[in-house]
Amino acid sequence: VKRHFTASAYVVQGGKVLLHYHEKVRLVLPPGGHIEANETPAQSAIREVEEETGLKVRILPLKTEATYISPRTTPSPRLIQIENIDDPVEGQHEHIDFIFYCLPVGLVQEPGGWYWFSPKDLKRGIVDVSGNLLVPPNDVVELGTEAIGLA
Prior knowledge:
Helices cover 21% and strands 38% of the residues. It has helices at 41-53, 119-124, 138-150; strands at residues 3-13, 16-22, 27-29, 32-34, 57-59, 79-87, 91-104, 114-117, 126-127, 133-134.
C-alpha cells in the first residue's frame, strides 16, 4: 500500500473548532495536507492552516510533552490516524495523518468557506452560505469535541 505523510490541525477558539467542506473528498474536515520535505509534522500543520485559512496558529501542547532541553523536541501530535484514500489521480493509498490541536495567534476572523463549529454543531451540522447542511464525520466530531475541551 502506498502511503503519504500528512498533518491536520483542529484550530480552536471561543469553544468552537474551525472546519470546512473539502470538495475533493466530500467531507467536512479541518485544515491539513501533505508534509513537505524537511518539515516536521508540527511545522506542516501550522503551514497548512495558514495556507488554507490565512490564520496564524500555535500548537496546543499536550500534558505529556517532554520538558528536557537536549536533544531538541518537536510538538507531539494528539494522535496519528491511518486514513484510506481513494483518489481519482493517485488511486488507492493511505494517509498517515498527524493530528494536532491548535490555537490562533493574533486577530481572528472567519475565513471564507470555513465555519466555527460548537460541540452541538459538530453533532447536528451547520448550514453553509449555500444552504447545504455540513455534518462532519464521526472522527472529526470526536476529535473536534476533545480539542474544544482541552483548549
